[in-house]
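User: Hey, my collaborator sent me this sequence without any context and asked if I could get a structure. I don't really work with proteins. Can you help?
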Amino acid sequence: MSELMDKIVTRRSVRSFSSEMPSEEKLAEVIKAGTYAATGRNMQSPIIIAVTNKEMRDKLSAMNAKIMGADFDPFYGAPAILIVLADKNVNTYIYDGSLVMGNLMLAAHDQGLGSCWIHRAKEEFESEEGKEILRSLGIEGDYEGIGHCAIGYINGEYPADKPRKDNYVYYIK
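Assistant: No problem. I've predicted the 3D structure and written it out in structure-token form, which is a compact way to encode the shape of the chain:
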């Protein structure tokens, strides 16, 4: 198996992170992978917001938990959050942003980090509080939150593989 296939086959969603912040170099490699995701007509509709500031990370966690109706950290303690948003004026924006999320998670695994796709970014950034965060960063336009990529070092054991379902693939020969 090639090294790439090994990373694809062994990547798992992690739901327990240590508080140790990954290095700027590791995060930069992960982010770079996100910027090279395929996008429709190479329009590059997504943007990535890298959050390593604990105060902002905790604010986003509280916003996400409120939307979820939960009283726990929906980011599972991950110290870094990469938020993917995409320009709704590009008709492939959801697919484009989803491919960015996939690249981020694979690159995190390659860097020895755990990751997990956390939803509710759409609702977060449709709220006035979310729109204000975007304005404070100088982000203008009609962006929709695609997801949060929670990233950090794994706390505990790496999740085990789960068998693939029998009817995953159909062939037409």
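In plain terms: The chain has six helices and four strands. You can pass these tokens on to your collaborator as they are.
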